[in-house]
Write a structure and sequence with these properties.
alpha/beta, TIM Barrel, two-stranded antiparallel sheet, 11 strands, Oxidoreductase, oxidoreductase activity, acting on paired donors, with incorporation or reduction of molecular oxygen
């Protein structure tokens, strides 16, 4: 079954996340996704707020930029959330926007090497292993979590280019594709992921820009810098659901609808959960 989510944009004040999470939980939205964009919300603190203010809602973090965070600290934070709210957390990690990483003095020479080392170590730590590694970027000596998760954590990689897609298919449980990925590009990415995953289950999460009215459509097109209909869904719930199915047919298991920047997060969540999500279930 296709899972449906909404993005709570980090351009919104963090104190508004409480109402958004409660609304998403009440109206039966499958998933609420959070971005760790520099320099807005912290992804894991935002996830804690959303989880604490809901009872059944799945919360996704898409994604944590790995140059910013020591892998042992991230494992500790994820483990604490997963033990407290088991089965409700999806975590994405990625290279990070390179200009932002340079801005904070954390840009690395080989983002792909860092992601491989980091993803491998993080997976092992969350599994409860004691990890010793002396990599180019990740160095741990006998590190193990005192309180590892008691349930499996779904770790996803953010990927766009073919080398990162291949790495994600090889190592991760799933892949997060950005809102600038068309259905055709999603199909191409899914083909790479299937080859790299060698038959193992691999989930695909697609962000899709969504506009509920003409004003939102104009703002969305300005934001993404394109008026191409293969990058945005808009209009009536029937039209939006039909548009979403293009990404589903291309291989997405979860489609996360992304509103334009601006107020109205709870109204957007209510509209998607109440009118679009049921059509995709039907």
């Amino acid at each position: 079954m296709t899972r449906v989510g909404c993005v709570f944009r980090p351009e919104n004040p963090p104190e508004e996340l409480v109402a958004a999470a409660r609304t998403a939980d009440e109206v039966g939205l499958d998933e609420l996704w959070l971005w760790e964009d520099c320099f807005l919300h912290g992804g894991l603190s935002a996830a804690a707020i959303a989880l604490a203010n809901s009872s059944r809602l799945t919360v996704g973090v898409g994604v944590l930029p790995v140059p910013l965070r020591n892998v042992a600290l991230v494992a500790m934070e994820i483990a604490a959330l997963e033990r407290t709210y088991p089965g409700r957390l999806r975590i994405g990690i990625g290279h990070g926007v390179q200009d932002w990483m340079a801005q904070v003095g954390e840009r690395v020479g080989s983002p792909l090497t860092l992601l491989r080392e980091y993803g491998t170590a993080l997976t092992a730590l969350l599994r409860g292993d004691t990890v010793t590694v002396d990599g180019r970027y990740v160095r741990l000596s006998g590190v193990g979590l005192q309180w590892p998760p008691t349930t499996a954590v779904e770790l996803l990689f953010a990927a766009t280019g073919p080398r990162t897609l291949h790495l994600s298919g090889e190592l991760a449980a799933g892949t997060v594709l950005t809102g600038h990925t068309s259905p055709a590009a999603t199909r191409d990415a899914t083909a790479i992921l299937r080859r790299a995953s060698a038959g193992r289950p691999h989930r695909v999460v697609s962000y899709v820009a969504c506009a509920l009215d003409d004003d939102a459509l104009a703002r969305t097109r300005a934001e993404i810098g394109s008026d191409a209909d293969d990058l945005v869904v808009h209009g009536t719930p029937d039209r939006i659901a039909a548009g979403v199915r293009r990404w589903v047919d291309a291989g997405a298991d979860t489609v996360v609808l992304q509103p334009p920047v601006g107020p109205g997060a709870t109204d957007f969540i209510r509209a998607v959960a109440g009118h679009v999500q049921p059509l995709l279930r039907g």
